[in-house]
Amino acid sequence: MLRNGSYSAWFRTPLREGTGIVELNNGKVTGGDPVFAYSGSYFQNGDRFSASLTTRRHTQGQPSVFDMDNVELTVNGKSTPTTAFCTGTAKQAPDLAFEAIFVRMAD
């Protein structure tokens, strides 16, 4: 089960890879990287979870892993208290597979 806290995030699609920071707090997700902000919610059921996120560009810079600025992302995955792995798709690019790994940062 995921614990509240900060996680380093590594994510990819067949187009490219990216990294960022994600904060989980009682079902809410926030975070970002140098050019995108992330926000949304997640639901846990044991070691399984699902999340709905949006990404919004806040600064000019590198392209997103989806090759578009703003997306609505749905993911499903499996977690331990310190790591999580998920897969999903963006509403705006349903044929583009997305994968992410989250590693909890030390308190």
Helix and strand pattern = EEEEEEEE
Low-confidence spans = none
| Average pLDDT for all residues | 94
Strand percentage lies at over 45%
Question: Can you tag this structure with a few keywords?
Answer:
8-stranded antiparallel barrel, 8 strands, 66% strand, globular
Task: Walk me through the structure.
The chain has strands at about 5-10, 15-25, 30, 35-45, 50-55, 70-80, 85-90, 95-105. With about 110 residues, the chain is mostly beta strands. The two termini are about 15 Å apart.
Brief summary:
This protein is mostly beta strands and 107 residues long.
Explain the layout of strands and helices:
Layout: E1 5-12, E2 17-25, E3 28-32, E4 36-45, E5 48-57, E6 71-79, E7 83-90, E8 93-104
Antiparallel strand pairs: 1-2, 1-8, 2-3, 3-4, 4-5, 5-6, 6-7, 7-8
